[in-house]
Amino acid sequence: MKNIACLCALLLSVSAFAQKFEGLAPTPPMGWNSWNTFALNVNEQLIKEIADALIKTGMQKAGYTYVVIDDGWEAMERDSLGNLRPDHLKFPNGLKAVSDFLHSKGFKFGIHNCAGSKTCAGYPGGRGHEFQDARSYASWGVDYLKYDWCNHGTANAQETYKTMGDALHTAGRPIVYSLCEWGNNQPWLWGDKIAHLWRTTGDITDCYDCQDVYAMGWKYILDKQAGLEKYSGPDHWNDPDMLEVGNRGLSLAESRAHFSLWCILAAPLMAGNDVRNMSNEIREILTNKDVIAIDQDPLGKQGYRFMEQPGKEIWVKELSNGEWGACFFNNGNARMEMRVHWDYLPFPKGTYQIRDIWQKKDLGNTNADFVGHIPSHDVLLLKLTPSK
Ligand code: GLA
């Protein structure tokens, strides 16, 4: 009797541990997601054109690997056996064909669903079907699952997301698991055991600082990241939502600042623009390898807000090999002069060589004070390298 009780206790404690595929996201995942530009208008042709454009524009080479189909890919009902299935008009050849196409071009395939009974747009959600759905995803060759939180009723977030995580693990195909719970239940406190990344806020939209019930501009999202840096790292990233870089409501400066700050945050970089039709300036922002290197630095440390004063902020990120990223951000409405006395900044003592990353210019070293001019809503992004 005693032995049986021991065994039961052991089994219970084992099943209480979440299972997760380790090592799938040593640096923040990069890719493209359909939602910010195409909303529910997704289909096979679009995904193929986007994949081709990612190759043609150099985005794939710059690191954008996951092509993620967000909400709207499903048929309105499961099949008679309860299986999820794609809308046959949007995806006439099924999702395995899309997945094979993406894999043949060197991409990884991502998909969206929801932990609730229905997705936010009313398509079938995963609640109660987790193990069955995970088997479908594995059979379609899915590499990345974004799992939303609409229509969850009274479900407990941690338990519900753990169930899907266990289902993915049981299905046996390594899949990056991206929680989209909007930060409601502080997923940064428990998400690392279950998933590779988790959203920290509600939805982003394509403006600097507008706000409505469901969505907000990137400045509001940025403010909500301050203090979360200690919860992020390799294989467990805070996700301040996908990129609006290149979308209508942002000026070029705002797109550049948004991208710079997301890289300082070690944010997952999911482009959300129509990469088939983007300007050269936007392509240059999204593919700047020195900026991306800050995001993807192998140390995996999220940067933090070191200083905030009316009109200006300084964000810093520790990088490998003793280097630092520093982002001076003008959040005011007028051009600003920024005077920097380097001793004031939090870097370990020593002299550093300064590189202006966007201007691709060396700016001397940190022995002298620095004066920069930053237009409204723009940034000065510097990399500091210890002098030899
Ligand atoms: C939620 C998510 C968005 C997007 C939509 C799709 O709002 O936060 O990122 O996936 O659902 O309906």
SSE blueprint:
Elements: H1 2-16, E1 30-33, H2 35-38, H3 44-56, H4 59-62, E2 66-69, H5 94-104, E3 108-114, H6 130-140, E4 144-148, H7 157-171, E5 176-179, E6 197-199, E7 203-204, E8 215-216, H8 218-225, E9 237-239, H9 252-264, E10 269-271, H10 280-286, H11 289-295, E11 304-309, E12 312-318, E13 324-330, E14 336-340, E15 352-356, E16 361-365, E17 370-374, E18 379-386
Parallel strand pairs: 1-2, 1-10, 2-3, 3-4, 4-5, 5-6, 6-9, 7-8
Antiparallel strand pairs: 11-12, 12-13, 13-18, 14-17, 15-16, 15-18
Helix pairs in contact: 3-5, 6-7, 9-10, 9-11
This protein binds alpha-D-galactopyranose.
Brief write-up:
The protein is α/β, with parallel strands linked by helices and 388 residues long. It is built from eleven helices and 18 strands.
Overview of this structure, please?
This protein has 388 residues and is an alpha/beta fold. Helix content is 28%, strand content 22%. The strands form four sheets. It has an eight-stranded parallel sheet with strand order 9-6-5-4-3-2-1-10. A six-stranded antiparallel sheet has the order 11-12-13-18-15-16, covered by helices on one side. The chain has a two-stranded parallel ribbon with strand order 7-8. Helix 3 (44-56) packs parallel to helix 5 (94-104) and helix 6 packs across helix 7 (157-171). 45% of the residues are buried. The structure holds alpha-D-galactopyranose. Alpha-D-galactopyranose is lined by residues 35, 70-71, 112, 119-121, 148, 180, 203.
Order of helices and strands: HEHHHEHEHEHEEEEHEHEHHEEEEEEEE
- Helix share bin: 25-40%
Measured by DSSP, the beta-strand proportion falls in 15-25%
Indicate the mean pLDDT: 95
Strand order of the largest sheet: 9-6-5-4-3-2-1-10
